[in-house]
Write a structure and sequence with these properties.
The chain starts with a helix and ends with a strand. The longest helix has 10 residues. The chain is mainly beta and about 100 residues long. It is built from 2 helices and 5 strands, in the order αββββαβ. Strands 1, 2, 3, 4 and 5 form a 5-stranded antiparallel sheet that branches.
Length: about 100
C-alpha cells in the first residue's frame, strides 16, 4: 500500500458538508457520512475519485475514513461491526483532462 500510494499525488479533497448524513449505530456510536471528491495525479494521469467518507466516534476521538472499495468497507465492518449497518454510497474513479 505504501509503495502504491507513493505514486499518487493528492491535489484536492472536498467534502459536501451540506448533504452530510448523521446517525447513531446500534451500540450508540455517533457517525456521519459525507460525500467527497478527491482529485489526484497517478502515473501522470489526472483522476477524480468520488465516494463517501465515514466520520465516526471511538472513545473521545473522531476518525474519518474514505471508503473507495468494497474491501475497505469489509475491513471497517470487521473492526467496527456496529458500523456495518451504515449504508454507504458506491464510490467511483474517472480520468480527467
Amino acid at each position: 500500500m505504501k509503495a502504491a500510494m507513493s505514486q499518487v499525488e493528492i491535489k484536492e479533497v472536498s467534502f459536501d458538508l451540506d448533504d452530510m448524513v448523521h446517525g447513531t449505530s446500534a451500540t450508540g456510536r455517533d457517525y456521519a457520512v459525507v460525500d467527497t471528491i478527491t482529485r489526484m495525479t497517478m502515473a501522470e494521469n489526472n483522476i477524480k475519485a468520488t465516494g463517501p467518507a465515514l466520520a465516526y466516534e471511538d472513545g473521545d476521538k473522531w476518525y474519518v475514513l474514505q471508503i473507495q472499495s468494497p474491501d475497505q468497507a469489509a475491513v471497517l465492518a470487521a473492526v467496527y461491526p456496529d458500523l456495518a449497518e451504515v449504508e454507504l454510497p458506491e464510490g467511483s474513479m474517472e480520468m480527467e483532462e
